[in-house]
Amino acid sequence: MTRWGMAIDLHRCVGCQTCTIACKQEHGLPPGTAWRFVADCEVGEYPDVRRLFLPLQCMHCADPPCVPVCPTGASRQREDGIVWIHYDACVGCGYCAMACPYQARHFVAHPAGYFEQPTPSEAAQARPGRHGVMTKCTFCKERVDDGLARGLRPGVDADATPMCAVACIAGAIVFGDLDDASSTVARLAADPRAQALLPECGTDPRVYYLGD
Amino acid sequence: MAASMRAPRLEVLPSRPQTLWGWPAVLNFVLGGLGSGWYIVAVLAAGLERSPGVTAASWAAPFLVLGGFATVAGEAGRPLRGPWVLRRLWTSWMSRELLIGIAFVLLIVAELVFPLRLHRAQALVAATLLALAQGFILRAARGIPAWNVPIMPGLFLSSALLSGAGAYLLVESVAGRPPAPGVVVPVLGLVVIGFLAWIWYLRGSREFAFVQSVAPLRQWRSALVSEAGGHGLPVLLGLVALAAPAAAAPVLALAGALLIAGQAHAKAGLVRAAGRLRPITLAISLPGRRAS
Amino acid sequence: MKDRARSTTGEARLEKIPVYCYQCVAGPDLLKVVVKDGVAIGVEPNTEMADVHPAGGTVCVRAYALIQKLYNPARIRTPMRRTNPRKGRTEDPGWEPITWEEAFDLLAGRLNALRARGLVDEAGYPRLAVTLGAGGIAPAYLGTFAAFLAAWGPVDHGIGSGQGVKCYHSEHLYGEFWHRAFTVAADVPRCDFVLSFGYNGDASGGVTGVFRHAEARARGLRWIQLEPHLSVTGAGAAEWVPVRPKTDAAVLFALLHVILREHDWRAVCDVPFLERMTSSPYLVGPGGYFLRDPETRKPLVWDLGKGRPVPFDDPDCLHPAMDGEYIAAGIEIGADGARRSVSERVKPAFAHLLRHVAAYTPEWASAIADIPAETIRRLAREYLAYARVGATIAIDGVKYPHRPVAVLLGKTVTNGWGGYECCWARTLLACLVGALEVPGGILGTTVRLNRPSASRQESVRPGPDGFMAQSLNPTRSGTWQGAPHIRNAYRTLVPLAEDSPWSAALGPAQLPWLFMEEPPEAWPAPTVPEVWIIYRTNPAISNSDVGRIERQLERFPFVAAFAYTQDETNWYADLLLPEATDLESTQLYRVGGTKYIEQYWQHAGWALRQPVVEPRVDTRDLTDIATELAARTGILDGYLAALNRGAGTTVPLTGEGYDCAFHSPIRPTAEEIWDRVCRAASVSLHPGAVERDLQWFKQHGALFVPFSSQRFFLHRAMVAQGLRYEMPYQERIKRVGEELGARLHERGITWWDVQLDEYQPLPTWRDFPGIWQQGERSAGRGAGQFPFWLLTSHSMQYSCGANVSLPVLADVARHVKGHFGVMLNRGAARRLGIADGDLVEIESPTGRRTEGRAILLEGVRPDVAVVLQQFAHWATPFARDLAMPNLNQLASIELPLTDATGSVADLVPVAIRPAPGVASAPKARRRTWGSAGAMSRPPQMKRGSGR
Asked: Is A98 within 8 Å of B18 when comparing Cβ atoms?
């Protein structure tokens, strides 16, 4: 059984937002929308301060709160754990965004580009079906699925791996099959330093953070 | 996890307001609670019998509930897909809310056509479920600490009854049928219970994210409207009405209006002011204090 | 490899075209542009190069914005001529679109007129000046324009756009002097401990730097970050030490003190390295010059075995004295060759050093730098412990010393006053434990002043006194070039700038702006250039004292600007030539080996940049422009000869076993030129290499050969030639300084006297922050009225990419703190009544003001304010809506702030207060994404424009 997951090493991340822009490009996201971004966080008081970078995205939870609340069934979870949204079925009510503890769901009411008129690249990447509905990180399921269809290994071969992990310049983002004990992501997820965000929410995220 | 045990969980990304549910959502919750609560109070006040009060509620409630649905549908990105909201009855309280709301309206229509006690009882149950369903909608929102609490359905039911009672007092008094002490006294009891439920909600959790979220509702200005204006003053007015029956009609009408306004304010506060996304915490350590 | 694919439906034609990105000097990096049905839709890492590229073929955030850069509707779309003869911020240029033919007529006409009257004006300055953007970047986009300039003759390349202030200036000059290290890097993959004084490599070190740092942190590298605000790099450090600005030298001196005075240096230092690889044992005479053998003139050391002085290279001297005092005879050779016989008590240079650092105790430094003395002691102890003196490591089977410790210096630390002191102390710290140019330690990554530029190893040649040969600009009587040949006079004023093609940019590149307005005494008054050509640069934003820059620009008679969008400098231009962007032109560029910053690869070769789509606007490849201008100005022969020499391309078109040169006077197209360069470059990689033409490179993107890691380190080259590092005692610097002073005084020039103070053999602490605070006093403002230091910091999203007009970068940069406002300490701001998001006014002692939104943080010293990069645009589309302040609005170009290398540092004492008339500001300015409107918009004169 395949169970896609991700491990993010916070000691590696430098908050450069390369994953952010690569994701925006891969999915043709409009201005102001980022399915993933790196939060620039600060804790403590001067001079005992810590600044850290926390990449945030959909956690593709094993128990995703966003899926059962969805009234139309647009929010779905695949057998391999990927949580996704069937845009054609979504009413855009925003309920899933209220259910998600990770601030990972996004709504774009109207199509808009960065300029008054769409650029050729924006026009080529336009996805009208994604307006007025909820959107979020898909673990680049199209890349994963196309890659698998071509015999590639997600997490190993770039063309079958989510774009954020491919683009990451610090090697901080590792994607792969959590059920494959030999995979890097499974090893990292089992690391004692690995932690999930907001375990108190009982969502069992499939994105692990390697921290202190 | 080991890391969680080693280091404290520190808030690394603060809470921020949810922005997707605005006034249409508030209106849906206010109107849904008002419609269902009014019907419940009217039917109970009439002992499940037909009465002018029940008739008024029966005519008003469907418009209120459907009006709420229509308003909130306008807030959705794809309102024309509204009927698809019924697709996930077995998991989603939003689906159930819509189904129950439709059932409630249909049962009232049935009762108006065939004024059977059974229909009233069924509509009564549907109204109760509708109020609860709206509470369950918020209860299931794990991303909003102020909503994701067990008391939320109960709070919504209580709120529906209070605002419904308010509508009942207002309309009946204006119509020259000021409710009798036999109705007023239980209503005052309901208001006290509602007040306790509201206080219990506001102070029922010490979780930082919750306390932070409901802080605006605990500020004196909000308390003045919700607690004093929406609970305390109506109780006082109710007691005045009981003490001076001659002045009951205007006094109870005012008390009713205050109850409605108080609950509308509380729901608006819940959705808007307390509707904050959960802060992100992480188990990390801080550097030790240096001599500098 | 260029990929072509058709989707399963057969509808879309998808191509992946390999190119390189060189939007910062920490490149180039290799990427592919995804082109769908002729439209570029994305950028992706070139994973085919993962085994070659140190960061697995990735590219940083800026590269992804290249797509928007290509399609930005606010681009200059056609050549344009200015119709409004008046120049000024409020004067609309009145751009009139013209054809390229007209544009060439206009520019070539100007150039020909200039040629006709002589290439140099009456004052001795070139009539043509050319300014290129940020140091090492423009050449990667310049096509063959450098060959045109080489053929032209005298060109003033020294009118700065921020060089010297925004770079690692002291490091460039002294680093290259001491260990051929124009840029200094830690050997991070083999390093265990880094003391970083403001080095912000996780923002500025490119993907290679970021990747290596991340790998090192994962394996346990301990990184200590000393800096006034907690930068991106500080975020990843094990410890942040918030040092007071411009006091880094005091901390470094105290580290030297702890190691040399509080430890038994014989026990903790790499004594063999000091004895054999440095000038530590050289005896120093009473005049401050090395004691020399009267006959051979070789410096003497005291042979403890023989009990007498011997030449430093006496093979029988096994134990040279490092400490103590000895009576010895010899000569000193001072300034201008003055000999002086000596026979008295002398000490080795190292003994002078021991005495020199005695006063620099941690307690002393603590009071200056606001760091606990115990912290300094602990860091020194850790440095020694991690250094593992005596350890070795095998590189490609060859044994090297392994010293896994490094001290890194950031900008503002390593430029302006104090830069020399910091660079000296850093290099000396490496020498003390033998960590210079060995695995794990610090190493240079490129040479720009010495030759050959492609090989640090080969640039090591024996010079006098057992040191490397240096090509300093002459200062001796009779050889000193007293008449400045360009407006920044680097040959005249800065001996260490040497005289390579890069030297013009490394001279006092800010001084022309000052001297053009305020000519100094006894100096040929700098004229404004008659024709000024600019490319990928915006000095009206990026140079200090932007008001002064604009005043001068109003006087420039003819400015031709290669322009991407309207910007603040080309607002003053007479001719705009639409720029072919990164993805629209052809160029082959040298990749790998060792280059700037942290670029040291295990491969070296060439990568191609090529057009990925059909031209979007009426632009021309810069190579074609260069050829056209060469033909129209009658220097085609010289241009082709320059190409044959490899001018600009760095590869001669003829060499052993190949001849791709132009032998007849033709007008080649860009494709023809780059085809020859591709063929020459490929066969030049190694003997017997297969020739690859342009088509091959278009298909494959890059060609590499292995590059041995041994070539990262100078150690073997130094040992093989018996050379020593010129450390710790700077006899040559002292001599050069005295000579330069004498020359200037002979001409009656005294305005450079304060700079002459820097030429010290053992640098001493001066009140460096006080130099900037002096301006406060001279402006008649009381001490304490300007309690904040305004500093800048690097933004990876924006640096050097000429990309401030791209909204997508603002859209992602907003997630990184500092965009778009001024960072302040939360407690300090609270005391001033400033809340997060409030508009604050920032004022310098000179009365210049600007404004910005407060971003309140804990990770900022309470006496510091930080603004990222250089913004405050008023003409550049989109950027003009960002409402970001710019330190350059407040920073002055002043001689007292200029150090001996001609550099200043980015810091200004400022006052900060809530902006007047703004009681409660909105939390954040709402930005409109679709604001890239009409390009010629009369700008609004804002209060606090910094003019």
From this structure: yes
B276 part of a folded domain: yes
Side-chain-facing half-sphere of B19: CA atoms under 13 Å: 8
Supply the pLDDT for residue C780.
72
Write the DSSP assignment of B123-159 as a string of letters: HHHHHHHHHHHHHHHHHT-TT-TTT-STTHHHHHHHH
Whether B291 is covered by a domain: the verdict is no
**Residue C367 contacts B where some CB pair is shorter than 8 Å:** no
Enumerate the residues of chain A whose CB falls inside 8 A of the CB of residue C37.
Answer: 124
Please report the residues numbered 3 through 42 in chain A whose beta carbons come closer than 8 angstroms to any beta carbon of chain B.
39, 41
CA dist., res. C640 & res. B34, Å (int): 87
DSSP C463: -
Q: Min CA distance, C234 vs chain A (Å)?
A: 8
Q: Collect all residues of chain B within an 8 Å Cβ-Cβ radius of residue C239.
A: 287
Mark yes or no for CB contact C215/A171 under 8 Å.
yes
Sign of CA dihedral B187, B188, B193, B194: positive
CB count within 10 Å of CB A92 equals 23
| One-letter amino acid of C880 | R
- Contact at 8 Å (CB) between C429 and C383? yes
Please give the ipTM for the structure prediction: 0.98
Residues 6+ apart with CB under 8 A from C659: C653
Cα nearest neighbour of C926 on chain A: A32
Residue with tokens 């206080």: B199
B and C: number of Cβ contacts within 8 A: 12
Please name the member of A47, A93, A199 whose beta carbon is closest to the beta carbon of B292. A47
pLDDT at C783 over 90: no
| Residues B20, A212: C-beta atoms closer than 8 Å | no
Q: Where in the sequence is the domain holding A121, given as residue range(s)?
A: 4-210
- CATH number, residue B164: 1.20.1630.10
Contacts with B144 from chain A: Cβ below 8 Å: 98
Six-digit token pair at B148? 């994701």
Describe chain A by its helix, strand, coil percentages, rounded to 5.
Answer: 25, 20, 50
Cβ contact (<8 Å) for C214 and A12? yes
The answer to whether the CB of C912 falls within 8 A of the CB of C832 is yes
Q: What CATH number corresponds to the domain at position A170?
A: 3.30.70.20
Distance between B30 CA and the closest CA of chain A, angstroms = 18
Q: Residue B55's domain spans which residues?
A: 10-283
B289 at interface of C, judged by CB pairs closer than 8 A: no
Extract the tokens encoding C88: 């000024």
Q: Which chain B residue is nearest to residue A57, measuring alpha carbons?
A: B280
Query: In A110-146, which positions are buried (b, 16+ CB within 10 angstroms) versus exposed (e)?
Result: eebbbbeebbbbbebbeeeebbbbbbbbbbbbebbee
Q: Do B20 and A94 touch (CB under 8 A)?
A: yes
Token pair of C377 as six digits: 């002691």
C850-907 pLDDT per residue, tens: 999 999 999 999 999 999 999 999 999 999 999 899 999 999 999 999 999 999 999 9
Question: Where is C400: in which H helix or E strand?
Answer: strand C398-401
Are C239 and B287 within 8 A, CB to CB? yes
Number of domains present in the structure of chain B: 1
Q: Does B290 touch chain C (CB under 8 A)?
A: yes
Q: Which chain B residues are Cβ-neighbours of A68 within 8 angstroms?
A: 88, 91-92, 140
Structure tokens at C241: 């030490």
Overall number of domains in chain A: 1
- Whether B132 is in a domain gets the answer yes
Residue C542's H or E segment, with its range, is helix C539-542
State how far residue C41 is from chain B, nearest Cα, in angstroms.
27
Distance CA C585, CA C582 (A): 7
Q: Per residue in B37-74, pLDDT tens?
A: 999 999 999 999 999 999 999 999 999 999 999 999 99
Q: Is residue B288 part of a domain?
A: no
Sign of the Cα torsion A200, A202, A207, A208 reads positive
